[in-house]
Amino acid sequence: MTATQIRQAFLDFFAAKGHTIVPSAPIVVKDDPTLMFTNAGMNQFKAIFLGEEPAKFPRVADTQRCLRVSGKHNDLEEVGIDTYHHTMFEMLGNWSFGDYFKKEAIDWSWELLTKVYKLDKDRLYVTYFEGDEKEGLAKDTETYNLWKQYVDEAHILPGNKKDNFWEMGETGPCGPCSEIHFDSRPDNERKEVSGAVLVNADHDQVIEIWNNVFMQFNRLKDGSLQPLPAQHVDTGMGFERLVRVLQGKTSNYDTDVFQPMIQFIAEKSGKKYNSAAKPGDNDWSEAVAMRVMADHIRAISFAISDGQLPSNNKAGYVIRRILRRAVRYQYQYLGFKEPFFKSISAFAGGTV
Ligand code: SER
């Protein structure tokens, strides 16, 4: 499947389950002092979760442009070095506003991954929240039992507050979550070391693809958790990671989302992109630089088109830092002598 078909299959699947498809919110957040940029699909629904606004529809699905470069969720320094973090990425999401809860969320995520996308079940691992005494939160045995219907127990793993209790920021909606990870290592490696020990261990071939959050609390300024008026579902699947897994690649940058841009950068710089380059190899810095440029130009293009120009303060300064990082890599490692970004910004539009 192409990236476009993969995105559409997600939206069609949830439309058939009674979800209304809604547009992505802008990447720049102007009306929430706790947030500069949209960092998750749920941001635009925060007021609904908190019970401050009624939901227009009980179930929605969308694909949201997210930027994780500041605050609680910041991936900037990983980008380019590894093959699966981005500054800007698309998050495929389905939501229930006080409607369905854990059972349907889990049933449908499994159905979509294994029946529609036909992912190999042996390569999937799921997690559940192990509880946290200090916070007074119990172990999420309901989620564990729901997964047990489909998944071998050796592939159901407990996770701590850091990985399995999702929070939007220092304050705001939050709740226990259940992640789905995919192991794309070759069979011989999988036989030697179980994927179970590599989940959430920063292994670039055992990566999280989907997070299902069960929204139940509001984190208040004093650090306490207040139960929400209703229980909700917030899911987020990393589109670029899903495409990589479905296209059988070992790097997000090897998919049809990024390859046209990378090949153009490679051609114009007169260098070859080596996806397999390792730290210490001659072409490592060049490969990192090409990934940084391809990633950052998307972030900058969409931030600008959503209303945030680079500037010298606040959100504008963050965009300027991304721009500077990209320009630095471009001159330092790829030998460009002239401004080049405007020639690749056209590609960025085609990727979303
Ligand atoms: N809010 C959760 C996340 O960002 C799931 O959508 O991971």
Core attributes:
single chain, 352 residues, alpha+beta, BirA Bifunctional Protein, domain 2, 2 domains, 9-stranded mixed sheet, two-stranded antiparallel ribbon, 22% strand, globular, binds serine
For the record, the count of structural domains works out to 2
Terminal-residue CA separation? 16 Å
Q: Kindly state the percentage of residues in helix.
A: 25-40%
What is the CATH C-level name of the largest domain?
Alpha Beta
Biggest sheet details: 9 strands, mixed
Along the chain, the helix and strand elements come as HEHEEEEHEHEHEEHEEHHHHH
Mean pLDDT: 95
CATH topology of the largest domain: BirA Bifunctional Protein, domain 2
Structural class: alpha+beta
H/I helix tally: 11
Which cofactors or ions or other ligands sit in this model? Answer: serine
Shape: globular
How many beta strands in the DSSP annotation? 11
